[in-house]
Design a protein that fits this description.
By secondary structure, the chain is an alpha/beta fold. The protein contains 13 helices and seven strands. The two termini are about 40 Å apart. The protein binds guanosine-5'-triphosphate and magnesium ion. Keywords: GTP-binding, Hydrolase, Nucleotide-binding.
Length: about 290
């Protein structure tokens, strides 16, 4: 069985960093994983792991922009359309990997997830190839500094989830940037997220965050805006689809927890034949001699 994890989320959310850490974790746990780069604009030198499959071998944004005179966003759309027309290329490239995690590092253009048919079509193709697929959606912890920004992030996660209809895990990335010092009044006044209790209200989004704060802000008094807010609060209350797993890459347990959720979502290994134990390598017990 092959497993694909699509690593998605807005620009700069930490997708490439997470993909790299995920691979390192798999390697150290003696599992196999491979990087698939789906970002036609990615800088090749920036990969710590050489992607085994790279969309840039098929089509690169640079060429598309240079030769066809597209801008960066139109160019990205062109690249993905080109990929979808050349699924046999991807299928052939994916052919050699068995019983492996394939980690798809995706580009950060949010419109790719919310209203283009590319990812759903890609997912259909992966499942036709017999590859079990899930997606993780990363939102960075800075989104919690502003409730409105945060809820717009929640709504885009929701919209991407509904668009893709595959097993899905939302991750709050860069948790190392969040301080939990409740005794820092300047901090809590500035961003309102400090303190464990408060963080919990974001990880499991509490729509009241939106409802209460809006009432307190006299400067925004447009009643239509208020009604819209109420409607969003109601939507999130009625459809609590989105909650976040915190990811702090400075804490190995945190990464392990996230990966165990991915394994569980994927039902990783559940229908595998029992594996032969690894042959002992020279040096495995070196420290016992
Ligand atoms: N503090 C902190 N910084 C992080 C973490 N993960 C990523 N970053 C930083 O955030 C920036 C963006 O990280 P990337 O991994 O390139 O993010 P991305 O989602 O792949 O970005 P795009 O591909 O451009 O959409 C880089 O400067 C990273 O060093 C994290 O866990 N903690
Ligand atoms: Mg990236």
């Amino acid at each position: 069985m092959r497993y694909a994890v699509l690593v998605t989320g807005p620009g700069g959310a930490g997708k490439s960093t997470f993909s790299k850490s995920f691979l390192t974790h798999l390697n150290t746990s003696r599992r196999t994983g491979h990087l698939v780069n789906l970002d036609p604009a990615a800088n090749a030198e920036s990969f710590e792991y050489e992607p085994v499959i790279d969309i840039k071998d098929l089509v690169s944004l640079e060429d598309v922009m240079g030769e066809l005179d597209y801008g960066p966003n139109g160019g990205l759309v062109y690249c993905f359309e080109y990929l979808l027309q050349n699924m046999d290329w991807l299928e052939e490239e994916l052919g050699g990997y068995d019983d492996d995690y394939l980690i798809f590092d995706c580009p950060g253009q949010i419109e790719l997830y919310t209203h283009h048919p590319f990812l759903p079509t890609l997912v259909q193709n992966l499942s036709r190839m017999g590859i079990r697929t899930c997606a993780v959606y990363l939102l960075e912890s800075q989104f919690m500094e502003d409730r409105y920004k945060f809820f717009s992030g929640v709504l885009s996660a929701m919209s991407a989830m509904v668009n893709l209809e595959i097993p899905w895990i939302n991750i709050m990335s860069k948790m190392d940037l969040v301080t939990e010092n409740t005794d820092d009044p300047a901090g809590s006044a500035r961003n309102g997220i400090r303190g464990r209790k408060n963080i919990a209200r974001y990880l499991d989004p509490d729509p009241l965050l939106l409802a209460t704060s809006r009432g307190q802000e006299a400067n925004i008094s447009n009643p239509r805006f208020h009604a819209l807010n109420q409607a969003i609060v109601q939507l999130i209350e009625d459809h609590p689809l989105v909650s976040f797993l915190p990811l702090d890459l400075t804490n190995p347990d945190s990464l392990e927890t996230v990966i165990s959720h991915i394994d569980y979502t994927m039902q990783y290994g559940e229908d595998e034949e029992p594996k032969e134990p690894h042959d002992l390598d020279d040096g495995d017990f070196a420290d016992m001699e």
